[in-house]
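In this section we walk through a basic example: taking a raw amino acid sequence and producing a predicted 3D structure, encoded as discrete structure tokens. The instruction is simple. Fold the sequence below.
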Amino acid sequence: MSFRRIAGAIAVAGALAIAGAAPGQATILDDVKAAGLLRCGINPGLPGFSHTDDRGRWSGFEVAYCRALAAAVLGDPDKVVFVTLTGKTRFPALASGEVDILPRNTTWTFSRDVDLGFTFIGINYYDGQGFLGRADLGVSSATELDGASVCIQTGTTTELNLADFFRLNDMTYEPVPIETNAEARVAYEAERCDVYTTDVSGLAATKSTFDDPDAHVVLPDIISKEPLGPLVRQGDDQWADIARWTLNALITAEELGVTQANVAEMANGTDHPEINRMLGTEGSLGEMLGLDARWAARAIAAEGNYAEIFDRYLGAGSPLGLPRGLSALWRDGGILYSPPFR
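The resulting token sequence is shown next.
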């Protein structure tokens, strides 16, 4: 049986067990509260998304979401255990219950959503696959890479995208399989491959770690759509809703001007009805989720709204300096927005 089928069988079995649970049987929310910790699956170390400082403290775009979810559910953004997962290990870890949520940069696809039995709770970053190469390679487009050796992470969508791209352009390539971004960097710097391919955000993160970043270029070609987002196991709709609406709260907070600095004041009540509903001074949205009224206020207070998190770890305030692009709000030229809080 293939890895895909094994993981799918595990996930489906778990989903059926939850869906068919007798009244009063523990849910994922119950388990998280009982443990007093959120188990969050993240990348082993991808600058901007998940990395540790010299004291071993985790930070990054993925980490910030985990902290927001822990604050919403447990009242404390520090009540998180970060479990590092590779492209190969991430799906079995989620399916088996080793982690409660997987915000590790993962592309939403049909087979992962349907066949593997996972639920993607939203898109937190709109990405696309590209290529990183040395400037002295002398190419200006990926269509000039016929016969090139390519470092490629196993267990990812990039493998299939790469094969499709070269086939469509009637080119050949030599795959150099690696398992993690750290391994890719070592292999690429050792010139075991001519180019490295992954999501453009990952290429920017890798390039930022080089001693001489200007000696390397990210080619302009984008060869795929890579909608990245957190995912959970199927079968527990309450937990999926909590994870989904925590992300939506961070996005809506940016749109409505709720920030890490002002959320405590706004949580006392404003003239804006949607802010009041989201922050719990009107209505009963928290109760609908099985949480208290201030869940969203705590999530935003953990590390700020979506824009604050993006800018700090990926955007202008970070070494990566990535533009918002499609991940900008709908009113700012992007396609990012949340369903309404009502």
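Looking at the output, two observations stand out. The longest strand covers residues 129-134. The radius of gyration is 21 Å. In the next section we compare this with other chains.
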